[in-house]
Amino acid sequence: MNPLEGTVQHYAWGSTTAVARLLGREPSGHPEAELWLGAHPSAPSCLLTADGAVPLDAAIAQDPKRMLGERVRNLFGDRLPYLLKVLAAEQPLSIQAHPSADQAAAGHAAENAAGVPADAPHRCYRDAHHKPEVIYAAEPFEALAGLRPADEVLQVLSGVDSTSLGPLREALAGSSGARDAVRMLMSLPQQDVSRLVDDVARACRARVSAGSHSWEHSNAVRLAEAYPGDRGVLLALLMHHVSLKPGEALFMRPGMLHCHLRGVGVEIMAASDNVIRGGLTPKHVDVEELLRIAELEPCQVPFVPAQRPSSSVEVFAPGVPEFALTRVQVQSGRPVTLPDNGPRIVLCLDGDTQLRVDGQTLPLGRGGSVFVPDSDGPLTVEGAGVVFVASVPA
Fold first, then answer.
1. Is residue 86 within 8 Å of residue 19, measured between CB atoms?
2. Is the pTM of the predicted complex or chain greater than 0.90?
3. Domain membership flag for residue 368
4. Least CB-packed of 60, 91, 196, 334 within 10 Å?
5. Domain identity same for 178 and 155
6. Do residues 343 and 4 make contact, with C-beta atoms less than 8 angstroms apart?
7. Active site amino acids
């Protein structure tokens, strides 16, 4: 095993302090939204070896059998199938959905055939893989996740005194409910969207001023101030609002509309960068593609229950083949040994720990991370602290 150096992504919605605090350094003065730990070719972490820093994807390519193991290679080829992140949101991310495996492969092939440059801002399919993901709340975390039943949305809208919402109310009251409402909002001309967002924000602001508002009303005001005239303000009214307590997690399956609003979390996903956006962003919004791939039926809030094989270990495994996320809270004098689950990335979120594999021991303090190849076998965590282990389910 070797230490990893993650890649920080400076997206505009990121926190200016959270990632720096985790890594034990001074803030850079710029938004630091995500710390990537993995081998995705767009931003691979670096493996710190005796010969210097080596990008993790290059290190895997040099010796895939040792690094990944035959089981993972047979399933996914010579690539690490997951990506681990620390996500630190100070402002809302875009409302978005991710494609299924078949949709990703077809979309990537079609954009390649059309000659769309790999780094084009309007490109939706940057690779051929799907992107299911789990977000674990390291601190209180707010998100929008999936569509609510139409009657719940109508109840929220009953408190918004705006006659311009009539067509949306009619769509929600129809036989297809949320599906028709989303399609109607996404197909409106931008000038109509802008007027509707202004009307809704004005009505919600009046409710807030009067002290008779719900969370949805105050959120609409906040979003409209951050993204004036953006149809995502209206889409957010149709979605579940989730306030995660530390220790809770959500699973965003392919096709599910979602949006991270604020907070710090540990996120694991299939190693993909495919995002189709619907609003709350200055980036490219592809209405037609979003409506094609999105799941537009109401759903329950997609919590991921923790499996607890012992009092020190929680496993968040949503049933996808690429990844599972294990949280280990280790106490001094009580080491925890985890089974051999192929290539693993370990992140220390708090405390001072040590990792031991096959006679090798490596200290791991807060913010530190390590790559453990398949060939190292079972992993033992010692010391006192909290670590997260990304792995491929057995």
1. yes
2. yes
3. yes
4. 334
5. yes
6. no
7. 277
